[in-house]
Amino acid sequence: MSSNYRNFRNNVPWLILFLEAVFIVLFLFSKDYSSRTSISYPAFQDVNHMVIFGFGFFLTFLKRYGFSSTGFNLLIVVLGVQCSMLVENLLDFLLQRYMDCGLKRITKATVSTTAVVISTGAVLGKANPVQLILMTVVEIIFFHISRWINHTFLQIPDSIGMMHVHMFGAYFGLAVSSRFSEPSPRSEKNASTSKSDLLSVLGILFLWVFWPSFNSVLATDKHKAIYNTYFALAVSAVTACILSVLTTKDGKFRMSDIRSAVLAGGVTVGYASHSIKYPWIAMILGLLASAITILGSYCSQRCLNPALKIHDTSGVHYTFGLPGVLGALAHVVLLVIENWTNLPRLGSLALIYVGAFCLTISVALLTGLITGLILNLKLFKTTTVSKYFDDQFYWEFPHLAVGF
Amino acid sequence: MSSNYRNFRNNVPWLILFLEAVFIVLFLFSKDYSSRTSISYPAFQDVNHMVIFGFGFFLTFLKRYGFSSTGFNLLIVVLGVQCSMLVENLLDFLLQRYMDCGLKRITKATVSTTAVVISTGAVLGKANPVQLILMTVVEIIFFHISRWINHTFLQIPDSIGMMHVHMFGAYFGLAVSSRFSEPSPRSEKNASTSKSDLLSVLGILFLWVFWPSFNSVLATDKHKAIYNTYFALAVSAVTACILSVLTTKDGKFRMSDIRSAVLAGGVTVGYASHSIKYPWIAMILGLLASAITILGSYCSQRCLNPALKIHDTSGVHYTFGLPGVLGALAHVVLLVIENWTNLPRLGSLALIYVGAFCLTISVALLTGLITGLILNLKLFKTTTVSKYFDDQFYWEFPHLAVGF
Amino acid sequence: MSSNYRNFRNNVPWLILFLEAVFIVLFLFSKDYSSRTSISYPAFQDVNHMVIFGFGFFLTFLKRYGFSSTGFNLLIVVLGVQCSMLVENLLDFLLQRYMDCGLKRITKATVSTTAVVISTGAVLGKANPVQLILMTVVEIIFFHISRWINHTFLQIPDSIGMMHVHMFGAYFGLAVSSRFSEPSPRSEKNASTSKSDLLSVLGILFLWVFWPSFNSVLATDKHKAIYNTYFALAVSAVTACILSVLTTKDGKFRMSDIRSAVLAGGVTVGYASHSIKYPWIAMILGLLASAITILGSYCSQRCLNPALKIHDTSGVHYTFGLPGVLGALAHVVLLVIENWTNLPRLGSLALIYVGAFCLTISVALLTGLITGLILNLKLFKTTTVSKYFDDQFYWEFPHLAVGF
């Protein structure tokens, strides 16, 4: 089977090269970008930094998978951003829409690519680069289609539609992951050491600090979005610590809980961050988000995943999926409270937001499942279970004997 | 004694939860924040980044205390910022003061929390999370009171009063630390490895790069503050290298010296950075700051600390305390030189600045001592000396056997 | 020989102190800086962050040289920036030129210092601190002279002349390195471990994310520069992965290839980033840059370096030199294509840009060679080949026995 991959490997670079060549040719046909921009460079930079650096190191918790976590993340993000821009261009062209300027287009593409990065977390260590790249292209296309349906048929504003990115990424990733063979439960490679966990903390803190940028980059009222996201994150961090101590046997902190729950507030508050009027609402959302994450983590690992035979390497279900669902619902509840005097508007608002939410999850699960099936055709499925979670299968180590 | 903590631990999360609930309830009563802001988001982001990420990794030099250094730092900062905002709101309400807008309030709260982060450095590895959290709340309150006295009775502008944060944090931390049992001098956990030192370098370089943001965020003439801080830091870095070589036995560099002295210039120049007219003055301050730090480090470790029975884990006395004192004095000297033609004004200026300095130090030492006494009541004192500096006492390690 | 260094070491700090004192005295004579600035603080901050933090960790790939890589990098950068500002001040004074304001001057000085940081990569682990500091001062002076000749006699705009920094740094470094004794090919210290490589990935990702800031900081059309640099970097990253797989024996990724090639697009597109009209041109440049880097890496290591007896520790020749050359030539080609209707202007344009390119390389090689000769006088040459690539020769390790 290993030789299977070796034969296969000879085609890998040609596949990527072909993809990149197609991208370059397609960019030939894209319209000129204006140099005026409605997004500031630091705002784009923050999002770019989060996706490349923050998520790259967020995923380094596996003890033997640091190179792949950071390296493949870079590869996927740059391909995803290019692909996302081309799909957006195509949609703009087909629908004769107004076109965003340069920087705004890259920023939106980078935010969309977050879906892929999150999905990667579910198949981390199990998918080979070709599978990851195929997944990237397919997921980006379907995420754009889902956003387009939301925008066109349900009149969801784009800044809200974009926030479905966490939920879409998580459920797409879970559906893909359900088609992969499960790793052996005794696999000693599917674990972290304190060194790799500390590198992962580096990524977590990075994401934590920059999350207000993520929520505000496309928001209309940026200052409110930043302010509310900060408070949601702050309470999330505190709640993560509390619940981590409460759920462990002898009252210790557990790093994996904190990794999942510390960002939950930011994900949850994403939908409504620009419209929440008082910080205490954001704080309560942060508290609930963190609680649902730790609870979800407990349930997923003990009941749900074994029952559904889903292996979710970095726990994207409870890290991004559940807080996303909570955020979408909380957004509807907040809208209901705000518009309760205007019943007809209230009904239609609630309906379309719940509709958008259901649609996004359904599209994610369905297309994820199909993608998972395709990726596990014999053609692509080359990584045996024994080679899961291992850098050495993909990377050359001239220094193997020394200090690994 | 360990079982003592286990019993105690069951109450830890409820304590934090109670505190967080109180914070949320108090935020219910805080006035609405305007969305207009006088501080730019990147400026706030830089300070936030420094405190969460920079200081988090700055403190990872202990070889077995990386999780606690970064994790507890996050917990303390988010609680400290919320507490600081509430105290500020209360003072605004009581004194019928004008209220800052949202972002500026978080930024000021983050800068105030630096005091707590610095104090943490003195008791790093010795205080348990509950002690740290209690210390956070108490210190934030007293720092605000000290600033308020300075502002109201001595007419110190708030941007200067805020710069006492390093000095206050250092001396409060030292006073608290003096009440903790000293670790065994042969403790092998109270040491760094080259790996943990390298992670600490990451934090140092981060803080070094962002220090101009810290000094300029509340300054009136931001560009001058940035310019002068950069030069003071540059000369500090050079001087740290020089003196490190001069003070070691065989002329080698010592990382702990560089860790302490490289930031000294930034701390010292903080008070006067917006008013220094020529870069060479900032450069000389940087040189003196670095020199006083290395000298202070030599004296503290050999004479002062053993005599006073104070154990200062990350050397906050010479890293932040002494450069802060030097900066406060240098600020007075610069004011004297500037106003020497106007004798009456000169006298009163010198008097109030020296008064503010003495007051801040006294409040820090006194309240720190009391806090230290309270924290070492039998109720809270649960970490035995043998469990100092050890992540395993607070964190679950499912991967204990592997590669720790 | 080791005692040779010990004797020598006693003079090291005095040398640096003397240098720093000279700098401070010279700053006494520099004119006042205006507080108005034409460069924003975040732009300066990004470049500063890249040089101190990004390059510092970029160079940590050697397994026993992490302290020196990051520590000496900081020392060199701060000395280089001060030296560069003084040389610029002197030139401004001698030529009665208009003077930039404060922040712009530090920014330009930081960009110039990149040349030194790149050169350091070539002699990494072989040069001692004194050699590095001397090299810094000499290289900064010659780089300014080269830029001044380009600007005065060839009318090259300063934003283009500044982009020669990569090429100048690389060839200066190579020339210096050719005068150092080669390390033993079996030296086990001249290698990386997966841990040190992962820290280096941290630096690489940092540089990758911030490279658009570097190319845009002095550009006239900042948004175009950012946009084009992003695409060149994206395609570079993809191409680096492709070619890395193609050139290894069994189709695996190689981290050292990715380290060299991932930034190549940013270096190459630097000259023309503000004037490229369509992103696909930047993408093709990124592809070519990455290809030339991997090809260059293959040729250098196998043919060129052994023949010329040059040892290039971090491969600056193909990482920064070749992409720089490609960029300079591509810039000329793009100018030719743009101006092909205006033949006389075309001829003169091509001539001066090719002239500037040849001049810069010649100055770099010649002055580098001379510097290399001087640095290897018996006076300075104190590091024996057996002590190459070793932190322990320069740093005190109190924790030697534990976990190194």
From TrEMBL, chains A, B, C:
<feature type="transmembrane region" description="Helical">
    <location>
        <begin position="12"/>
        <end position="29"/>
    </location>
</feature>
<dbReference type="GO" id="GO:0008519">
    <property type="term" value="F:ammonium channel activity"/>
</dbReference>
<dbReference type="InterPro" id="IPR024041">
    <property type="entry name" value="NH4_transpt_AmtB-like_dom"/>
</dbReference>
<dbReference type="Pfam" id="PF00909">
    <property type="entry name" value="Ammonium_transp"/>
</dbReference>
<protein>
    <submittedName>
        <fullName>Blood group Rh(D) polypeptide</fullName>
    </submittedName>
</protein>
<keyword id="KW-0472">Membrane</keyword>
<feature type="transmembrane region" description="Helical">
    <location>
        <begin position="225"/>
        <end position="246"/>
    </location>
</feature>
<feature type="domain" description="Ammonium transporter AmtB-like">
    <location>
        <begin position="20"/>
        <end position="379"/>
    </location>
</feature>
<dbReference type="GO" id="GO:0005886">
    <property type="term" value="C:plasma membrane"/>
</dbReference>
<comment type="similarity">
    <text>Belongs to the ammonium transporter (TC 2.A.49) family. Rh subfamily.</text>
</comment>
<feature type="transmembrane region" description="Helical">
    <location>
        <begin position="349"/>
        <end position="377"/>
    </location>
</feature>
<dbReference type="GO" id="GO:0097272">
    <property type="term" value="P:ammonium homeostasis"/>
</dbReference>
<feature type="transmembrane region" description="Helical">
    <location>
        <begin position="198"/>
        <end position="219"/>
    </location>
</feature>
<feature type="transmembrane region" description="Helical">
    <location>
        <begin position="132"/>
        <end position="149"/>
    </location>
</feature>
<dbReference type="InterPro" id="IPR029020">
    <property type="entry name" value="Ammonium/urea_transptr"/>
</dbReference>
<feature type="transmembrane region" description="Helical">
    <location>
        <begin position="74"/>
        <end position="95"/>
    </location>
</feature>
<feature type="transmembrane region" description="Helical">
    <location>
        <begin position="161"/>
        <end position="177"/>
    </location>
</feature>
<feature type="transmembrane region" description="Helical">
    <location>
        <begin position="320"/>
        <end position="337"/>
    </location>
</feature>
<keyword id="KW-0812">Transmembrane</keyword>
<feature type="transmembrane region" description="Helical">
    <location>
        <begin position="280"/>
        <end position="299"/>
    </location>
</feature>
<dbReference type="InterPro" id="IPR002229">
    <property type="entry name" value="RhesusRHD"/>
</dbReference>
<keyword id="KW-1133">Transmembrane helix</keyword>
<feature type="transmembrane region" description="Helical">
    <location>
        <begin position="41"/>
        <end position="62"/>
    </location>
</feature>
